[in-house]
Amino acid sequence: MDIKSILFAVLRKWWLIVLLAFIGAGAGYLSASAEKPIYQADTTLYIMNRSKVLDPNVQLNIQDITVPQQVVQVYSGIITSRLVTSSVAEDLAKKGLYLHENQILSMVSIYSQKDSNILTITAKSSSPTISADVANATADAFIQKMRQLTNTDNIGVLDRALVPDYPTEDYKIIKISLGFLIGIVFGFGIIYLILYFDNKVRSAEEIERELNIRVIGLIPEHDIR
Q1: What's the pTM?
Q2: Tell me: the pLDDT tens digits for 118-131?
């Protein structure tokens, strides 16, 4: 079996490759359609020493308007604590949205840039409205609990989460393309197996190549009717 034989086999059965490619693309589309799209909403918080910032008699420096990264990490841990998540669940229940604390934890994540006093609370859900509600409720509960614990007003909302219009995780195109490619690969594989187990000889060149003998004559095709 050489490259020439494989190419001829592919040309003879090109329809099989096309058929399997479209079947694979269809399977990818059905798989993607069965999954719910994921929406992401972000609430941005600022953290700064407000007592110094608002005092006209105090000369500010960079340390007064920024927060060490270690403090931001501590805040991140507080946001995902049971103290905050239970409060979030209670606030959402008042709006008719009932979520368990573990569900809230699985939806919420916290991001912050290095040496920055900006903290971003991100919530992901298959519902755009729920993602925004959870992000905002988490921010509100965190601010409230921090004020109770520290008796300070150093944390506030910079931007509240809006209901997202489009999903952030939509793998439909990727799955369709992947299914299409897998179908093509299967098509080539099936053609190769058919050719591998096919013992038919289709030309004098194949006889000479496979049996290592010389063909001395050919019987032409003729219709005897």
Answers
A1: 0.62
A2: 889 999 998 999 99
